């Protein structure tokens, strides 16, 4: 979540009197926000999960990502990291998506694709009627990690 801070200063008789106000600014529709283990606001339609190679295998941030049905989830490497990765889910998390169209539902394995200066996998979380926790494997080369995704009804 983004936070903006405004500082208003008033000068009276040579003395500075300050007032501070903070406001939470919701993400604009279409803006990607870091996924967390807590559900994002309903306005959030796109979240991302960071994928990196660590000394003991892949590092995923966050390890558990909670989203609502229909949310786009983007697994991505840092910019200029072009090492491919693969996701293997215990059950289908939804449909693979590109920026132009959705693919078949039921898919459980996803290979990253180069998108500009990074590797990415983009899915649209499937429709569910109750909480659905899905474990998955992230593979970079021969190393792997077992994080999870939690899909909640919209």
Structure, described:
The protein has about 150 residues and is an all-beta fold. The protein contains no helices and 15 strands. It has strands at about 1-10, 15-25, 30-35, 45-55, 55-60, 65-70, 70-75, 85-90, 95, 110, 115, 120-125, 130-140, 145, 150. The strands form three sheets. Strands 3, 4, 5, 7, 9, 11 and 12 form a seven-stranded mixed beta sheet that branches. Strands 6, 8, 10, 13, 14 and 15 form a six-stranded mixed beta sheet that branches. The radius of gyration is 19 Å and the shape is globular. Residues about 1-10 and about 15-25 have low confidence and may be disordered.
Structural topology:
Elements: E1 2-12, E2 15-25, E3 32-34, E4 46-54, E5 57-61, E6 64-68, E7 72-76, E8 86-89, E9 94-96, E10 109-111, E11 113-115, E12 118-125, E13 132-140, E14 143-145, E15 148-152
Low-confidence stretches: 1-12, 16-24
Cα separation of the termini: 20 Å
Major pleated sheet? 7 strands, mixed
What integer is the average pLDDT? 79
Record keyword descriptors for this entry:
single chain, about 150 residues, mainly beta, seven-stranded mixed β-sheet, six-stranded mixed β-sheet, 15 strands, about 0% helix, disordered N terminus
Explain briefly what this protein structure is:
0% of the residues lie in helices and 56% in strands.
């Amino acid at each position: 979540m983004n936070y903006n801070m405004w500082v208003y200063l008033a000068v009276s008789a040579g003395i500075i009197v300050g007032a501070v106000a903070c406001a939470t600014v919701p993400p604009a529709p279409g803006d990607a926000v870091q996924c967390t283990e807590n559900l994002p606001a309903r306005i959030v339609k796109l979240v991302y999960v960071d994928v990196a190679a660590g000394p003991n295998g892949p590092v995923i941030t966050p390890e558990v990502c909670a989203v609502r049905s229909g949310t786009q989830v983007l697994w991505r490497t840092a910019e200029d990291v072009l090492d491919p990765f693969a996701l293997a889910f215990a059950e289908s998390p939804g449909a693979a998506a590109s920026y132009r169209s959705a693919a078949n539902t039921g898919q459980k394995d996803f290979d990253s694709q180069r998108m500009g200066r990074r590797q990415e996998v983009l899915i649209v979380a499937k429709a569910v009627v109750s909480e659905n926790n899905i474990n998955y494997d992230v593979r970079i080369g021969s190393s792997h990690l077992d994080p999870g995704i939690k899909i909640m009804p919209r």
